[in-house]
């Protein structure tokens, strides 16, 4: 695996060029040679079930896709288009910040595979999954 | 396959109980015994890439999950928790409304599988995928 | 979608170049511009559960991968490496031939997505799924 | 996570009740509280491409499904039906034994999620993926 080409501040700046990432207020809380961690602060708009108050699965899917993409971006210098994505839901995400931990499974010539786990502040596993990114795609 | 238990207005009302669905302004535009169609009107917050202006994959993943879940809800009377979800991305979604067409692949005793395709107003295929829903889960 | 480049006999000949396909005795029973159908005759070695006598999920996964790949081969003139694959299992496959029906979902420049359904001789849906194929890969 | 209910010999005996597992000559080489490792010895029938001589992706998919299922079996005392399965292919598997390393991601009340990586004898990553197992299913 090559060394990182982007540091935390560069990844954060690139991340927030996206209006959707701004709306989600995404925050790169850590990046090292193995892993990137992105925090998503709670928003009341995230709720799917008002009685129990838990977060919509679409937010969890989004952050798995983004964290995987930025695990690749850290190594290759920019994010890449997602080819496909899969999410397993493990536990209802109640009110509170969530943290997506992502790492690269395989960095290929045409495709990269990255996986991410989403935890709450108590380290409960909420969801996990993978994305495939087209790293040969032109800018 | 059983007959539908919820009509368009009932599905729409249930759908909009979710704050995230309200933010997305989801609209059930059609439901019949085979298919449900949900429209997502464009929002500028959806953009991931400001230069090209295309929609974030997380929005496409969200609407595939929701449309699959409501294909099941039409038959069974309510939505169910998503066990897992997969999305294939086919084409960048530029500014404009999108339409998710979903149908049930298999309605089992413990879980249901539904698939959805997301089209733009010109019927270009933007993304497609599947969700598995835990239909034996308690309310 | 382009017109087919390979007919039934050409696909069958190419298919059986693989020793594993020979062991499975795969048979292209139909190919048209929309769909390819591949038959897998029953073998007693396929069984996973000797009491009930149903087929191993790995055989169902294999035939979904192969059928998707050959749906692409029909259009592009040869099979391509699988990037990833997903299978949903719907019903135990008891003794008897099975038939995988595959079609292309999206034929892109870098990759193709194909989906397949596996039916028994009574048209019961046993499994279904998708593969992504790297159509830009060198021969 | 509960303690294992089956040891190596019990898992091996259960595994080989399946004729397909016998044909594959599957061998549980290690099991501990975190992980199970299953070896698949090379067979010439596995080949998909006779020129290069690499293994069919269906064999890799099969062993990911089996290893995930037996990671669950180690904890719960028996294997369970697979709900769905996903495989990412990372590298062509040339002649030689392969080793699937599997662990449980989440052991739920209705479903368990397990992941597996398949390595060759030189620890090259060939494929990896996940299965969902219906742990509430009756025997």
Description:
- The structure is a homotetramer of 139-residue chains.
- With 139 residues, the first copy, chain A, is an alpha+beta fold.
- Chain A is 24% helix and 38% strand.
- In chain A, the strands form 2 sheets. Chain A has a 6-stranded antiparallel beta sheet with strand order 1-2-6-7-8-5. The first copy, chain A, has a two-stranded antiparallel sheet with strand order 3-4.
- Chains C and D meet through helix 2, strand 3, helix 3 and strand 5 of C and helix 2, strand 3, helix 3 and strand 5 of D.
- Strand 5 (82-89) of chain A pairs antiparallel with strand 5 of chain B.
SSE arrangement:
Four copies of one chain form a homotetramer.
Chain A: H1 8-15, H2 19-24, E1 27-31, E2 36-40, E3 47-49, E4 54-55, H3 57-76, E5 82-89, E6 98-107, E7 111-120, E8 125-134
The chain pair with the largest interface is: C-D, 34 and 34 residues
Structural class of chain A: alpha+beta
**Mean pLDDT score of chain A, rounded?**
96
Number of helices of chain A: 3
* Range of helix content of chain A: 10-25%
Along the chain, the helix and strand elements of chain A come as HHEEEEHEEEE
Share in β-strands of chain A:
35-45%
Our measurement of the CA-to-CA distance between the termini of chain A, rounded to an integer number of angstroms, reads 22 Å
Oligomer: homotetramer
Strand order of the largest sheet of chain A: 1-2-6-7-8-5
């Amino acid at each position: 695996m090559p060394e990182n080409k982007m540091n935390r501040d560069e990844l954060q700046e690139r991340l927030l060029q996206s209006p959707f990432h701004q709306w989600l207020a995404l925050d790169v809380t850590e990046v090292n040679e193995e892993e990137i961690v992105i925090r998503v602060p709670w928003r009341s708009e995230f709720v799917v079930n008002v009685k129990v108050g838990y977060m919509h699965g679409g937010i969890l899917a989004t952050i798995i896709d983004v964290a995987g993409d930025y695990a690749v971006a850290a190594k290759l210098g920019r994010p890449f288009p997602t080819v496909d994505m899969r999410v397993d839901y493990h536990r209802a995400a109640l009110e509170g910040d969530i943290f997506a931990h992502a790492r690269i499974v395989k960095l290929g010539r045409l495709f990269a595979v990255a996986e991410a786990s989403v935890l709450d502040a108590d380290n409960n596993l909420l969801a996990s999954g993978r994305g495939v990114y087209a790293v040969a795609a032109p800018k």
